[in-house]
Design goal:
This protein is mainly β. The protein has no helices and 9 strands. A 9-stranded antiparallel β-sheet has the order 1-2-3-4-5-6-7-8-9, with no helix packed on it. Strand 5 and strand 6 form a beta hairpin. The chain is globular.
Length: 174
């Protein structure tokens, strides 16, 4: 819609604490109707494991990715992702993730989704990526409700953590 004003503010910090690469982020957005905020944190350990967590207060909006009104209005989202890159095979990264929305309508299940990825660095900037994810919830309690399962591409980066955990979009058709 032309002429609508939105305001957004966010920030990140990355550093190393006791040998652990740490990242945190926070953001806020307001369009005059809804205001949303979120925060995230990640840690990459020397043993090859990394983890990322995120939370967002979505102010009762529709599907946060598509705005699709078929999907339930949601009040919040949280997600976690874990990845491993073995020292003996640093070209390979595998990861898993899970995320869940809190639906505002009691007739709606809380949409949730999970994913699994494997990335292999082929060198020269090329990365072979494979992933699978599934999601459920949405408006499955209603007549004609939807349940989504889909193939998901892996992260663009060889390492799925800590910079970009692959978190599924539970109620979005892919």
């Amino acid at each position: 819609i032309t002429g609508d004003t939105s305001f957004a503010l966010g920030g990140t910090w990355n550093g190393s604490l006791s040998g652990v690469d740490v990242g945190v982020g926070v953001g806020y957005q307001d369009n005059g109707t809804n205001s949303v905020w979120g925060l995230s944190g990640s840690a990459a350990f020397a043993n090859g494991f990394s983890v990322a967590l995120g939370y967002a207060d979505l102010d009762g909006t529709g599907d946060p990715v598509t705005g699709d009104l078929i999907n339930p209005a949601v009040d919040s989202w949280w997600g976690i992702g874990v990845a491993y890159t073995p020292a003996s095979m640093s070209a390979l990264t595998v990861g898993v993730n899970y995320g869940e929305y809190e639906a505002t309508n009691p007739l709606d299940d809380n949409p949730s989704g999970w994913g699994i990825v494997a990335n292999y660095d082929l060198g020269g900037g090329a990365v072979a990526m494979a992933g699978y994810g599934a999601s459920s919830g949405s408006d499955t309690k209603r007549p004609g409700g939807v349940h989504h399962t889909s193939f998901l591409p892996a992260s663009r980066s060889k390492r799925t953590m800590p910079s970009r955990p692959v978190v599924t979009s539970p109620c979005t058709p892919h």
